């Protein structure tokens, strides 16, 4: 059985409430239950934190034992050299995911410290971006 983890960064705990015109009205918990139902033969764990160091700790913790990491570092994508370095240091492949098309937003969101060390990047497909990332590991 493939063992994957979705790691979400800051403010993604507010999905369903936060800017529904950009992020939709589904909570991440609701979405995760749907995805787990679609892939019953895949172990999908989940972690979310608003704290950069906790995200780095989780990446290091799972980065040698999981088959894949689906990472939406949210705003830290554009600011965190530390998260980028953590991805570079681990063996588990990482798919960078974004709900919105970051290139259609503010210019500072066009820079990613994750992308250079990620296996791939999926953005702009709403919550389906996560499912596309999961499919890439299967």
TrEMBL record:
<comment type="function">
    <text>Catalyzes a trans-dehydration via an enolate intermediate.</text>
</comment>
<comment type="pathway">
    <text>Metabolic intermediate biosynthesis; chorismate biosynthesis; chorismate from D-erythrose 4-phosphate and phosphoenolpyruvate: step 3/7.</text>
</comment>
<protein>
    <recommendedName>
        <fullName>3-dehydroquinate dehydratase</fullName>
        <ecNumber>4.2.1.10</ecNumber>
    </recommendedName>
</protein>
<feature type="site" description="Transition state stabilizer">
    <location>
        <position position="18"/>
    </location>
</feature>
<keyword id="KW-0057">Aromatic amino acid biosynthesis</keyword>
<feature type="binding site">
    <location>
        <position position="72"/>
    </location>
    <ligand>
        <name>substrate</name>
    </ligand>
</feature>
<feature type="binding site">
    <location>
        <begin position="99"/>
        <end position="100"/>
    </location>
    <ligand>
        <name>substrate</name>
    </ligand>
</feature>
<feature type="binding site">
    <location>
        <position position="109"/>
    </location>
    <ligand>
        <name>substrate</name>
    </ligand>
</feature>
<feature type="active site" description="Proton acceptor">
    <location>
        <position position="23"/>
    </location>
</feature>
<dbReference type="InterPro" id="IPR018509">
    <property type="entry name" value="DHquinase_II_CS"/>
</dbReference>
<feature type="binding site">
    <location>
        <position position="78"/>
    </location>
    <ligand>
        <name>substrate</name>
    </ligand>
</feature>
<comment type="similarity">
    <text>Belongs to the type-II 3-dehydroquinase family.</text>
</comment>
<dbReference type="Pfam" id="PF01220">
    <property type="entry name" value="DHquinase_II"/>
</dbReference>
<feature type="binding site">
    <location>
        <position position="85"/>
    </location>
    <ligand>
        <name>substrate</name>
    </ligand>
</feature>
<keyword id="KW-0028">Amino-acid biosynthesis</keyword>
<dbReference type="GO" id="GO:0009423">
    <property type="term" value="P:chorismate biosynthetic process"/>
</dbReference>
<keyword id="KW-0456">Lyase</keyword>
<dbReference type="InterPro" id="IPR036441">
    <property type="entry name" value="DHquinase_II_sf"/>
</dbReference>
<dbReference type="GO" id="GO:0008652">
    <property type="term" value="P:amino acid biosynthetic process"/>
</dbReference>
<dbReference type="GO" id="GO:0019631">
    <property type="term" value="P:quinate catabolic process"/>
</dbReference>
<dbReference type="InterPro" id="IPR001874">
    <property type="entry name" value="DHquinase_II"/>
</dbReference>
<feature type="active site" description="Proton donor">
    <location>
        <position position="98"/>
    </location>
</feature>
<dbReference type="GO" id="GO:0003855">
    <property type="term" value="F:3-dehydroquinate dehydratase activity"/>
</dbReference>
<comment type="subunit">
    <text>Homododecamer.</text>
</comment>
<dbReference type="GO" id="GO:0009073">
    <property type="term" value="P:aromatic amino acid family biosynthetic process"/>
</dbReference>
